[in-house]
Amino acid sequence: MARRVMIKGNEAIAMGAIEAGCRYYFGYPITPQTDIPEYLSAAMPKVGGVFLQAESEVAAINMLLGAAATGVRAMTSSSSPGISLKQEGISYLAGSQIPGVIVNMSRSGPGLGGIHPSQGDYFQSTRGGGHGDYRTLVLAPSTAQENYDLTMLAFDLADKYRNPVMVLGDALIGQIKEPVELKTYRKKLKEKPWALTGAKGRHGHILKSLFLADGELTDHNWMLAKKYKSMEKEVRFETYRAEDAQLLLVAFGSVGRILRTSVDILRDKGKAVGLLRPITLFPFPNKAVRQAADKAKALMVMEMSTGQMVEDVRLAAECACPVDFYGRPPGSIPTPDELAKEAMKIWRKRGLK
Amino acid sequence: MYFDTIIAGFGGQGVLLMGNVLAYAAMQAGKQVTYMPVYGVEMRGGTANCTVVVSDRPVGSPIIHEPVTAVVMNRPSAEKFGPMVKKKGQVFVNASLVKQGQFETRAKRVSWVPTLELANEVGNSRLANMVMLGAVVQGSGVLTVQQLAEALTGALDPRYHKMIPANVQALEAGASFVSEQKAA
Amino acid sequence: MSAKPKMKKVFDRPKSLKDVPYHYCPGCHHGVIHRLVAEQIDNFGLKENTLAAASVGCSVLMYDYFDVDVVESPHGRAPAVPTGLKRAKPDSFVFTYQGDGDLAAIGTAEIVHAANRGENITVVFVNNAVFGMTGGQMAPTTLLGQVTTTSPYGRSAVTDGLPIRVSEMLSTLEGTAYAARVAVDNIKNLKKAKAALKRAFTYQTKGWGFSFVEFLSSCPTNWKMSAEEANARVGKEMADYFPLGVYKDVRAN
């Protein structure tokens, strides 16, 4: 029988990582993700793994780079300001095609900002984040269960594409406590012929992102671009009461789950409102949004920011229907009633019945 | 079935533990549940609160602005959360620290629970939180005292397991108090 | 003519080095230092069990010369990367090869903490008192008065501070087990350098902890000197400020 446990969202991330075979964690304390290193500092030694509190976020991501270069599953976690520091290393991981899982339990900014939940790291996560023309796969959980499941998936995707994968939650998703059904990870890990294991009976392997010969870097970037394109098949999203929705709300992560309640409130009032929640932010569910734009009378994006994902939704909708927006900068978490009221404003503005 | 509550009080009164035990019991009862602690920095002395939502369906928002139930363990919490409770909702007030007329609420039902006095009868004033939790489940019907008692092993840190019998007594004392009031 | 005289091979390319010409400038000491490191990899039989971290600077291209597994590190992060390598593969021999810009400027935090943790790795530090790859800018190890492209009036103690003596600094850390400063400007020093590297390799292979070998090196191009002048400067000006010797050897008996 499946085991259900009541755990914090952050703990679910840590437990998912261990279940997926991650035995190397490098991190640095920052609120609101510190439960992850705290949990792993106790858990890793028990499973023969390595927990290392690095001298900085910068060092932590590069320790991950070194460990992952040998072919093992490795993870680091942080929150927004710390993720900014890791971006150099993430760019090198992408350029050198070294897999790794980076968790961002994001908080508010810019600068030191605060520890409130925020979705202001959407651009940073989905546009690569560091220097150069690259992408990371981005998974956006909205429940503790998803934290657990998507962390396991993150390791699979990282290995499959030899690419960094970002798990993007926020303070709410990290601090919430919910029942989580624990699973047994059964996938057999594939060999990594590219890894650094010692040049036994072969020439040395080189993992690098520097390409100086004529045309080499162009080819490398085209190869990466093709890889990012091929990730489209990993698109994941969830819909809720969307079938006959005239107004379709689009939101990810914590706002995505709060809106379930808003949709129920509006449905109780007889309004045909539904929800589309992207789970992969890169690759973005462009097709799903486009189809929704054909079906619904209007789309409305809601974010805990002043508007980031809305740009992707507008691009994906290709003007097939109007796309409205409600944003909440960090400071307070929007309630279902407040969001329902905002949706009603658009309902009226667009003359829906 | 749907139930939500904001549990609030001073840090150190054990309000987060109340939420944890309630959430754990709800999970064991096969319900969907979320527990959301307040986002504060104080470990002791400041105000603390948490929100617990229990439902048959997946829980959307873990944050509630108009709760069905509020559990207020001190006066500042009563003043803050009392007015937010729904008209058809219920407020559980720690009568040992909050007096009549000290806060406003639209809620039709207000239960005054002398948690300290009842906890002292059990033999430990620190069990006031469990007294209140017993009163809450009895008064709201969200779960049974038995279900809470069974959740203690999982919800409490093993080093407090020797306190479980006293905790159960406190839960029962709170529940009996509410039953007797209803009967009266 | 009689049969060919019997020739004994007295000098050969270490197996850990690829048979390719170096891109390094004439008179640069990287080539000699590469060779010394490769010799020890061969001597200790580690060619098939070595993981190296390349750093940013002229020596980033070390993977074009060393025939071992190499991962490239972001600038200055080389001691963090092999921390990951070593933790994941504790039975491998792990070394970094870093210049002074990389190690003593942008990577100061990483080298100090890797040493302080006592990571069982070996760091080869090449100090030529200048940023080489970017074209001769001031480094943390640039000598007082030395003219570079970013210290056109000579390094000033008032505005730039004094050059950092890394071997001495790291020796103050409990985690550093072995630290030595060597040079390859003459045969006598070269032999000492060999011995220091051998000692560093011994430390790691025996699991004795963090080992560090600093090489004073020349950079004729950016010093605007001939190879001979640059070589002479290493033994004089450089060694005056950065004294050669073993700074720490906790297992010395």
Overall description:
The complex is a heterotrimer of chains A (353), B (184) and C (253). Chain A is α/β, with parallel strands linked by helices. Chain A has helices at residues 9-19, 35-46, 57-69, 80-96, 122-126, 144-161, 171-175, 216-230, 253-268, 286-295, 309-317, 336-349, and strands spanning 3-8, 24-27, 50-53, 74-78, 100-108, 114-117, 137-139, 164-170, 177-182, 206-207, 237-240, 247-250, 273-278, 280-282, 298-303, 323-327. In chain A, the strands form 3 sheets. In chain A, strands 2, 3, 4, 5, 6, 7, 8 and 14 form an 8-stranded mixed β-sheet that branches. In chain A, strands 11-13-12-15-16 form a 5-stranded mixed β-sheet, with helices on both faces. In chain A, helix 1 runs parallel beside helix 2 (35-46) and helix 9 crosses helix 12 (336-349). In chain B, helix 2 (75-81) links the parallel strand 4 and strand 5. In chain B, strands 2-3-1-4-5-6 form a 6-stranded mixed β-sheet, sandwiched between helices. Chain B has a single domain (2-183), classed as Pyruvate-ferredoxin oxidoreductase, PFOR, domain III (Pyruvate-ferredoxin Oxidoreductase, domain 3). The two termini of chain B are 28 Å apart. In chain B, helix 3 (115-122) crosses helix 4 (128-140) and helix 5 (145-155) packs antiparallel against helix 6. Chain C has 9 helices and 7 strands; from the N terminus they run H-E-E-H-E-H-H-E-H-H-E-H-E-H-H-E. The longest helix of chain C has 19 residues, at 187-205. The mean pLDDT of chain C is 96. At the A-C interface, helix 3, helix 4 and strand 10 of A face strand 1, strand 2, helix 2 and helix 4 of C.
Characteristics of this structure?
heterotrimer; A: 353 residues; alpha/beta; Rossmann fold; 12 helices; 16 strands; C: 253 residues
Topology:
The complex is a heterotrimer of chains A (353), B (184) and C (253).
Chain A: E1 3-8, H1 9-19, E2 24-27, H2 35-46, E3 50-53, H3 57-69, E4 74-78, H4 80-96, E5 100-108, E6 114-117, H5 122-126, E7 137-139, H6 144-161, E8 164-170, H7 171-175, E9 177-182, E10 206-207, H8 216-230, E11 237-240, E12 247-250, H9 253-268, E13 273-278, E14 280-282, H10 286-295, E15 298-303, H11 309-317, E16 323-327, H12 336-349
Parallel strand pairs in A: 2-3, 2-4, 4-5, 5-8, 7-8, 12-13, 12-15, 15-16
Antiparallel strand pairs in A: 1-9, 5-6, 7-14, 11-13
Helix pairs in contact in A: 1-2, 1-6, 3-4, 9-12, 10-11
Chain B: E1 2-10, H1 15-28, E2 32-37, E3 47-55, E4 69-72, H2 75-81, E5 90-94, E6 109-113, H3 115-122, H4 128-140, H5 145-155, H6 164-183
Parallel strand pairs in B: 1-4, 4-5, 5-6
Antiparallel strand pairs in B: 1-3, 2-3
Helix pairs in contact in B: 1-5, 3-4, 3-6, 4-6, 5-6
Chain C: H1 30-43, E1 50-54, E2 69-72, H2 80-88, E3 93-99, H3 100-106, H4 108-116, E4 122-127, H5 157-160, H6 166-171, E5 176-183, H7 187-205, E6 210-216, H8 220-223, H9 227-241, E7 245-249
Parallel strand pairs in C: 1-2, 1-3, 3-4, 4-6, 5-6
Antiparallel strand pairs in C: 5-7
Helix pairs in contact in C: 1-7, 3-4
